[in-house]
Amino acid sequence: MTTETSTTEYEKYYVPEKSKLAVFATIGLILSIFGASHGLNEMTFGDGEGSWTILWVGLLFFAGTLFSWFRITIRENIAGMNSAQLKKSYVLGMFWFIFSEVMFFFAFFGTLFYVRTLVGPWLSGEGEAGRMNSLLWEGFQYSWPMATTPQEAVGGAGSQLIANNGEFHSYHKSMAFSEASAWYAWLPLWNTIILLSSSVTVHIAHLGLLDGNKKKFNIWLGLTVLLGITFVGLQALEYYEAYGHYGLTLNSGIYGSTFFMLTGFHGFHVMMGMTMLLIQWIRSVKYGHFTADDHFGFEASSWYWHFVDVVWVFLFLFVYIL
Amino acid sequence: MGDHHHGPAKGLSRWLFTTNHKDIGTMYLWFSFAMFILGGSFAMIIRAELFQPGMQLVDPLFFNQMTTLHGLVMVFGAIMPSFVGLANWMIPMMIGAPDMALPRMNNWSFWILPPAFLLLASTLFMEGGAPQAGWTFYAPLSTTYAPPSVTIFIFCIHVLGISSIMGSINIIATVMNLRAPGMTYMKMPLFVWTWLITAFLLVAVMPVLAGAVTMMLMDVHFGTSFFSAAGGGDPVLFQHVFWFFGHPEVYIIILPAFGVVSQIIPAFSRKPLFGYDSMVYATASIAFLSFIVWAHHMYTVGMPIAGELFFMYATMLIAVPTGVKVFNWISTMWRGALTFETPMLFSLGFLVLFTIGGFTGLMLSIAPADFQYHDSYFVVAHFHYVMVAGAVFSMTAAVYYWLPKWCGRMYNETMGKTHFWISFIGFNLTFFPQHFVGLAGMPRRIPDYALQFTDFNMMSSIGAFIYGSSQILFLYNVIATIVAGKPTSDEKVWDGAEGLEWTVPTPAPYHTFETPPKIDPVHAHS
């Protein structure tokens, strides 16, 4: 133990003793990817069996480990082990984690832009690279959302000149605004309104917490979670419509691929953010956690929530409107 | 808990449950060396097959699995984790921090690596074999024509990405938040600077790689058409997404190496680093440029001419900050009191050979010339000069330089120098002739070749065996040092070395800087 009386906060930096968390989390993660990869191979190539069970066991184990990891962290904070400096480490960690998520979406948005501005026109014969049109995809016309896939333009998978790697068919109806029967029946608009308002409600909850008004905090945070649930519900309805009535599936060429990839991963992130906020709500309502000056668990979750909201704005613009 | 620190726990639990940056650094270093041997043995199989024209030892499918796994294991298993290990050991000691900012996550970043690589290596025994589309795994080789093991490969890449991102977030938080009072950014040792910038690169591009493999996964299993023209996608799209990750990735590998060399050359020149500020700015410039040059890997794929020109000029720009670095290292040595211990020898080897690799890179950056060089052995020679003589030589230098500080024992200098000279000769014998066969038209990634390339390929193979076996000497020297090296307790093992890590006792105690050290305000960086 040090006896030096330094005025800096540095000496109190909390370095935890040995911890089993990392090894347990590893077991969960590795079991999950083992089960998932073998399960998918079962599904596609038909070899092996029982892998999905390994996936579920792994995920359950992983979730349990994360639960106890966060519980330990929260208890350490309540016990006063976290210096202001350590809290800043958590802030930095969350910030750069969100940045990495931004880059993950950047890959898919980049894909969308590349396909729409370059690949589509090339396949239909524009520019130098368009020479392939007359050789491989004779008759293919490009429009967005892509009405007919190049494969259909040449008469199906059997008639294409390059290797057949699956059937890609078009949809009856896309998710674009022009195909909606009326503006109020267009789900993406409602989803935008819902998600944007949820960003406002979570901010009001934060303001309430800063005022020390826990009741206001609980109400508005709970409302945010409800809005999140509504969003996911409408998104599920949209997917149901797509598969059930629009003929729009993952196999619907590059439009279906990008549509489901972007909205799917966004929806998954909304569910993660919602779970995070829900946990904060339970912490506040049931355990009375959070004070006006110590509420990083909530703050980090709300940053994440704002992040999924911003991603949605881009989605709404580039996937649904433009 | 944080107050009464004691020594390490006993037995296996010390390593499994540790939160100590030195323990975790040690595990990273040993793991990366094991992967270096594994990836190296794949390379030996490749060189054995290429010793003579014609098919001798392995069938072409297996040969492709070897080139693929060699690249993946060396890049993701050997080089990257070795520098992460070095970062774990050195960054807290260099900036006066008690440990890494997020110690439990630090342990997790390490422990997911070994099982992921075990899983990846196990695909060799799967039906259909291991992935064989090359370490760049271009679609449709990695989608339409891939064996089922590609699914496992995809998830392994996800895990490696998670590990890298968590490791990088930890490094960023440590450097931004845990510097001792007075350790301003522009006083940080250059190794810390290069790692900070590398960590930013990793957080920015590993998620893009995750996106690329996720699209592969969807194409293989869920009928999407990201990389299939029949559905309106494009196989070339894969190359764009991959190289948007891949080009920053090569700087992720080389920037920490720059940092190591920038610590070692001043120490053995007994002079401060020349042009510290310009070194920092050059590193940042290289990192920025790495985001806008990716398509120089794809000149022959059929890009519009405007794209070819843009990526050509942007690529050539990188020569400027890199030149700044090379001249700074040379100027550091100018009129220094030079001595040539093993770390310095490896650093000088780095300097000379990396510069050769840089120049061949400049040749490759010229789009019209690249139409000749593309996918030839010239490219193989180029990037091995950068990866092996660049990253691996500097890593080796780092081990010799800091090993006495880590374990309190001195390595055998004669054996170290022998290791250097055998490595240097073996390396050049392996890769220098590959420039010639490449320019003469020998393509990369083939198990057989035309007769006129035989002599140079034989030289290459002999060189590879020499270089490979010299690593056994390295391993022996390191183990002999740890077990029975001459004990040393000098805080400053090297008389010319500067920096906080040389102010703590030797061997470095389990916990350093429980209270922050005082930073000499006049004396800046090393």
UniProtKB/TrEMBL annotation, chain A:
Domain of life of the organism encoding this protein: Bacteria
Gene Ontology cellular component list: membrane
Stretches that traverse the bilayer: 21-40, 52-70, 90-115, 183-205, 217-237, 257-282, 303-321
Family: Belongs to the cytochrome c oxidase subunit 3 family.
Record localization: Membrane
Residues in Heme-copper oxidase subunit III family profile domain copies: 9-322
Protein name per UniProt: cytochrome-c oxidase
Span of the signal peptide: none
One BP annotation, GO: aerobic electron transport chain
Membrane topology of this protein: Multi-pass membrane protein
Pfam families reported in the protein's UniProt record: COX3
The EC number(s) this enzyme carries: 7.1.1.9
InterPro entries xref list: Cyt_c/ubiquinol_Oxase_su3 (IPR024791), Cyt_c_oxase_su3_dom (IPR033945), Cyt_c_oxidase-like_su3 (IPR000298), Cyt_c_oxidase_su3-like_sf (IPR035973), Cyt_c_oxidase_su3_a-hlx (IPR013833)
Any one GO molecular-function label of the UniProt entry: cytochrome-c oxidase activity
Organism of origin: Parahaliea maris
Top EC class of this enzyme: translocase
Main localization (coarse): membrane
Entry keywords, A to Z: Membrane, Translocase, Transmembrane, Transmembrane helix
TrEMBL record, chain B:
EC class (word): translocase
SUPFAM superfamilies recorded: Cytochrome c oxidase subunit I-like
GO biological process: electron transport coupled proton transport; oxidative phosphorylation; respiratory electron transport chain
EC number from the UniProt entry: 7.1.1.9
Principal subcellular localisation of the protein: membrane
One Pfam family this sequence matches: COX1
InterPro entries (alphabetical): Cyt_c_oxase-like_su1_dom, Cyt_c_oxase-like_su1_sf, Cyt_C_Oxase_1, Cyt_c_Oxase_su1_BS, Cyt_c_oxase_su1_dom, Cyt_c_oxidase_su1_bac
GO annotation, cellular component aspect: plasma membrane; respiratory chain complex IV
Membrane topology note: Multi-pass membrane protein
Compartments, as annotated in UniProt: Cell membrane; Membrane
Gene3D superfamilies in UniProt: Cytochrome c oxidase-like, subunit I domain
Protein name: Cytochrome c oxidase subunit 1
Source species of the chain: Parahaliea maris
Gene behind this protein: ctaD
